[in-house]
Write the C-alpha cells for this entry.
Amino acid sequence: MIFKNSKVIIGFFSLAFLILLAVIVFGISDIRSKNQETSILLNEARQVTEAGGLTQSIKTIQANSREEITALDELVFTNDKLVSLIESIEEKGKVLKLNTKIASVERKESATSDPDLIRMVVEAGGSWSATSAFLHALESLPYRVMIEESILSQAEDSWRLRIVFSIHSFD
C-alpha cells in the first residue's frame, strides 16, 4: 500500500512539477515578448522625442534668423523695388534742389547668369555741393552699384551730372 501510495504521490508531484515548469516556460516567453514590445515602443518614443527636439531647434533657429533674413531681403534688389528706387532717386534730387531726370531704365536679361542687370541713366543739374552730394548718394545705394559712366561738367553757373550705372536684380 505504501508503494502504491508513493507511486500516486510521485505521479502527482511529477504532474505538478510539469505544470509548474510549463507555467514558468510560458511566463518567461511572455515576459520576453513583452520586453521586446517595450523595447520597440521605447525606441519609437525616443525617435519621436528626438524629432520633436529637432523640430523645436529648427523653429528656434528660424525665429532667431527672422531679423537677419529680413535685413538680407532688404539688401537684395528685386523688380518690385525698382519703382521705389526711382522714386527715392527723384526724391533725393528734390531734397538737394537739383533738376533731376531719370533718362532711361533698361533691364538686361542675362541667359548665362542668374541676376539680371538694371541699367539706369540719371541726369541732374544744380550747385556743386548738391550735385556732389547726389553723386555720393547714388554711389551709396544699399545695393551693389556698378558705375559704367560718370560725367560731371560745369555749364554756366551750375553743374551737370550724367551717370550710367547698373544694379543686379535677383528675380
DSSP finds three helices and four strands in the chain. The chain has a mean pLDDT of 85. The beta strands are 99-108, 116-126, 145-155, 158-169.
